[in-house]
Write a structure and sequence with these properties.
Elements (H helix, E strand, L loop, with lengths): L3 E3 L4 E3 L3 H9 L31 E3 L6 E3 L30 H11 L1
Antiparallel strand pairs: 1-2, 3-4
């Protein structure tokens, strides 16, 4: 299976439609970009890089390996955010909403 990460834009590129179809049929795309109505989207700003079918992550068939975009590890604390809406009214030194994803993974592994 050939899937390429397009580095300058961060989206997945499938050189063969059959590969994309196999990824979807095999449930190897566990994370998708969605709009406010929870519909998978390829449209900015909900899908910031235009990934096909809103694919934001790929995993191995056994689920042990996960490659994802948008890199939540870069912003698990609020002080790491370059910008966020004032209405969030969060503690700048506290955790961001992304931290919960890592906490859920830890709980699941335990």
């Amino acid at each position: 299976m050939s899937v390429y990460q397009c580095g300058h834009r961060g989206f997945s590129f499938f050189p063969d439609e059959n590969v994309l179809s196999d990824v979807v049929k095999s449930n190897l795309a566990p994370l998708r970009y969605c709009d406010d109505a929870n519909n998978v989207t390829e449209v900015y700003p909900f899908n910031p890089n235009g990934s096909p079918l809103g694919i934001a992550a790929l995993c191995s068939p056994n689920g042990r390996h996960l490659a994802l975009m948008p890199h939540p590890e870069r912003s698990f604390m609020m002080w790491q955010y370059p910008w966020y809406p004032k209405e969030w009214q969060v503690e700048k030194s506290g955790p961001s909403p992304w931290l919960r994803m890592f906490q859920n993974a830890r709980e699941w592994c335990s």
